Structures are given as C-alpha cells and as structure tokens.
C-alpha cells in the first residue's frame, strides 16, 4: 500500500472506496472517493478497491453529468418562475441573469475541481480554492473582502471518531471544529444571513454547531455520509433563487444525494437577480 492508492476496508465490509492520503507507521489516513468522509485504518485492514482508475474516472464523470442535467432542469424551471413574476412590460429578451456569486473552499483538491466544473456548466460565477480544513478560517479572512461572494461553501472531509463519547461534543469530530471556526470568520465579516449565505460541513459533521456558528445550511442532521456534490447542489439552488424569494428548504435538501438526514438548514433569501436592459 502507498499514498494515492484506492482501497476499501475489510472490517467495514468493503463498503466505501477511499484514497490513501498519508501513511503514518502502520496506519493510513483515508479520504472518501465519492463521499466527504475522513477516516483512518490499519494498513492490514486495507485491500485494493476492485476498480481501475479508468473505471473510477468514468464513474465520476457519469455522476457529474447526471447531476448537472438534473440541476440544469431545476435552474431552467426557477428562471421561468422568476421571469414570469417580473414586470410584464419586459420580454425575456430585455433582461439578463445574474446568479449569486460563490466562493467555494474545499479540503479536497479533486472535489474542488469537480465542483467548479458544475458551477461553470451552470453559468454560476464562482471562485474555488483548495485549503486543508485547518487553514480555512485564516484563508477566509483574506478571501472574503477580495471576492465579496453572495454564497460561501465551506466543505471537505469530516467524520466521527470511532470511539467518540458524545455526538454533541465537537472533540468527537475530525474536522467539525475547523468548519465552525471558518463559519465564525464569515459571520465576523458579514452578520446578515440573507446577504451572505453559508453552506458548511462534510460527512457526519456537527450540524447543530455549524448552524449556531452562523451557517444557513449544514451537514449532517443524521450524522450520515454525504455525497461529494451535495453542498454544491444547495449552492446552485441558492444562487438561482430570486432575491424576492426564500430557498425552498425541503425541496432543495430532498434533491441532494443524502437527503434530509444529510443536509439541513433554515429559511434563507435567494441571491439571483434579473437585470435590464440586456446588453452585449
């Protein structure tokens, strides 16, 4: 076994595919290949995943294309509703669209690139940065005044320690306390939760602590695994919901891979604006 290998854990029935992040002695630090889970395991518990890199890459692309197709349908429906409720004196040709601007911080560089691909195909202005979860709060101090986003996504990998004492204790989580600090940094910069929407967390993250810190949407109410693209799906809906409306919480969260146990949140105003007249 070596860094970068794709493996599964024998003790967990080979249920989740991981990439080996680092090896420390006889222990490997693992990052989920499709889910935002951070884990560790003895090297003796690991075996190569029964897929090739080519198969894995093809699977990723198929998932992304399917997600983009569904999101594109939702975006078009939302645009029709927004335009239909706009002033009737204007035709569709008279207006231009301005989705909310996204700042996406990700603790996984591969996921960050895939997420940026989704934003790009859906025509959402977005800036993405890879930072280890431990550095996100500090990075936001510099990025927020520079980028001035409408929506901030703070995600990466997380998980409950195997022998955790309490799910209410932040010390029971591998990265939730870093996500909490990052959310607090955003709220120190912008307190109004309708001016700047924050989406935070990863697999099994401390949902309540993230909301208390100031996140509008967070994972994971049921302390379950979430798909790598779940935070992006919420960001897309927030970016294309009109500033005159609130994000339809149950509809948005039910559309994620992990559902209502994976992501939660509260009523939040959208970030999408119509402009007129349309110019080249």
Q: Care to describe what's here?
A:
The protein has 280 residues and is of the alpha/beta class. It has two domains: 6-51; 69-275, Response regulator (Rossmann fold, 3-Layer(aba) Sandwich), CATH 3.40.50. It contains seven helices and 13 strands. It has a six-stranded mixed beta sheet, with helices on both faces. A five-stranded antiparallel beta sheet has the order 4-3-2-1-5, with no helix packed on it. The chain is globular and about 65 Å long. The model has no long low-confidence stretch (mean pLDDT 89).
Kindly state the number of beta strands: 13
Assembly type: single chain
**CATH class call of the largest domain:** Alpha Beta
Please state the CA-atom Rg, rounded to the nearest Å: 19 Å
* CATH level 4 superfamily of the largest domain: Response regulator
Number of helices: 7
C-alpha end-to-end distance:
55 Å
Helix content: 25-40%
- Fold-level CATH name of the largest domain: Rossmann fold
**Overall residue-averaged pLDDT value:** 89
Low-confidence stretches: none
């Amino acid at each position: 076994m070596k860094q970068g290998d794709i493996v599964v854990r024998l003790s967990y029935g080979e249920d989740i595919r991981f990439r080996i992040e680092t090896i420390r002695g006889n222990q490997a630090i693992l990052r989920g290949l499709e889910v935002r889970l951070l884990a560790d395991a003895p090297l003796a518990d690991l075996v190569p995943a029964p897929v090739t890199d080519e198969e894995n890459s093809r699977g990723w692309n198929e998932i992304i294309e399917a997600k983009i197709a569904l999101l594109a349908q939702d975006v078009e429906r939302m645009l029709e509703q927004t335009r239909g409720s706009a002033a009737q004196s204007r035709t569709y040709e008279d207006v231009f669209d301005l989705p909310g601007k996204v700042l996406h911080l990700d603790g996984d560089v591969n996921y960050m690139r895939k997420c940026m691909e989704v934003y790009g195909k859906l025509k959402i202005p977005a800036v993405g940065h890879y930072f280890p979860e431990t550095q996100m709060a500090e990075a936001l101090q510099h990025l927020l005044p520079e980028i001035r986003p409408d929506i901030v996504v703070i995600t990466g990998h997380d998980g409950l320690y195997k022998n955790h004492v309490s799910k209410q204790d932040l010390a029971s989580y591998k990265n939730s306390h870093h996500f909490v600090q990052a959310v607090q940094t955003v709220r120190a910069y912008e307190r109004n939760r309708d001016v700047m929407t924050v989406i935070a967390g990863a697999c099994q993250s401390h949902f309540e602590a993230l909301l208390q810190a100031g996140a509008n949407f967070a994972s994971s109410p049921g302390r379950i695994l979430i798909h790598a693209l779940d935070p992006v799906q919420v960001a897309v809906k927030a970016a294309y919901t009109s500033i005159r409306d609130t994000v339809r919480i149950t509809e948005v969260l039910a559309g994620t891979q992990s559902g209502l146990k994976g992501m939660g949140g509260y009523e939040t105003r959208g970030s999408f604006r119509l402009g007129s007249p349309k110019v080249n």
